[in-house]
Design brief:
A: 150 residues; alpha+beta; four-stranded mixed beta sheet; 4 helices; globular; B: alpha/beta; Aspartate Aminotransferase, domain 1; Aspartate Aminotransferase, domain 2; four-stranded antiparallel beta sheet; 14 helices; 17 strands
Chain lengths: 150, 407
Amino acid sequence: MFDDLRDLYQEVIFDHNRNPRNFRVIEDADRTVEGFNPLCGDRLTLYIKLDGDKIVDASFQGSGCAISTASVSLMTEIIKGKTIDEAEELFEKFHEMTTGKDEDVQLEAMGKLAVLAGVREYPARVKCATLAWHTLDAALKNQETSISTE
Amino acid sequence: MTQFPIQKIREDFPILQEKIRNKPLVYLDNAATCQKPAAVIEAMSHLYRHDYANVHRGVHTLSVRSTDLYEGAREKVRQFINARSHKEIVFVKGTTDAINLVAQSFGRAQIKAGDEILITAMEHHSNIVPWQILCQQIGAVLKVAPINQKGELQVEQFENLLSDKTRLVSVVHMSNALGTINPVKQLIDKAHARNIPVLLDGAQAIPHMRVDVQDLDCDFYAFSGHKLYAPTGIGVLYGKQELLEAMPPYQGGGDMIRKVTFEETEYNDLPYKFEAGTPAIAEAIVLGTAIDYLVDVGMDSVAAYEAELLAYATEQAHKIKGLRIIGEAENKGAILSFVLDNVHPHDIGTMLDSLGIAVRAGHHCAMPVMDFFQVPATARASFAMYNTVDEIDILMDGIKSLIEVFG
């Protein structure tokens, strides 16, 4: 019935929506930032634990749609073990992939994150996918304690 | 179903023939804005092709023709809501503009530091923020009458909040997020017993029921054209003449003056005192066309038909496991706001869109209502006179399917 949506709602997204990874609080987090999308009410808190410039743990709490939940869940998995610079680079690539500005983004290079590429066909949903990453960006730059997509 | 010319009405709305994602459009976002009948679309075109010029200005033929049509539309609005005089019908941009006008004109003149303005917990942001701005400007206090879990106003609490300091009550006639129709006559009686004027936000009510401002005895009534099958950019502020007379102008400019020198300015009569600048001429005239269309169908018929649609939708929604209706007032207009146990409203919106069904997903500019029901957002199907039982079946099938997909 929802054949048209297969690119947007891939099985991986349903899986992460049903069973979000790293859905917990890191009590001794080095960075804690709240992300808010006032348009749809999505709200998440991102926790980052650092060792030097390396992300050793990442987790989140909050509620959102399937796209935003899957996006933040996948993100917390993927950034673990990366340096701040590597994570920032990934943020740039993710942003390009979801906003479709750069058609040449190599989806293979995005790994699991490629499942979120479908949002670029749905402008109203791009912010759902990017909320997690904007929140991460704020956390890594250590400038703010809350960000909003608007 | 009662005898309602649904087939003819559907044929009158060209956009209903559109295909969305290769499916017939099922348009259920009427509380946001509703679609336009061919009569309205064609009237707009006809006006610009044959009768358009500025109003209240020149002596030339087109200006006279345009002015007659513009004032004719005002008369249609007067009759539609049964105001006493055309002087009580102020053309504005929309409901939001109307409420801001009252806040800044009536409010700044009549309300002082320490005075109170009473609203309810189910207001749209447009009936909250103008009062907050006013309160910040003058040091007045905004009071909020609570609602219950069904989304109904707690009338006793409302009464208790009316005090010697209350200078204005501003209440939504029908809630956009919940569908609740407030017992406005009763509220107005209570407020008037203390000589407190009442503004009704009629943005949602006006397309769904007969509104008679004399029968209601409200002091102000605000509504938008675009929710009444007319264009955007035009709305109406009804105000009792004696109140409008006493109010200072809201904006200065052309049309609202009688005589201007650099020393002083004499303001125009009602309603022009509040219509500074060139108005939305075509939109106002075409609002008249939309009203003609509605009068022809009959507001009582519309209300009866939509009540049947809502009853059917509610009954079907109750059968869906995991669906919770937000807003179950006894007296309710044709709005079905809901949440699903495992599916976020935004996903509901996208999923239904892929089936050609347009619903609103979000906070509906009523964040305090969302907070009250402890949901981040809801999905909302809002019905108009051109919707059908078949479309409700399509909606319900879509909801059942997406629940399955999300597991």
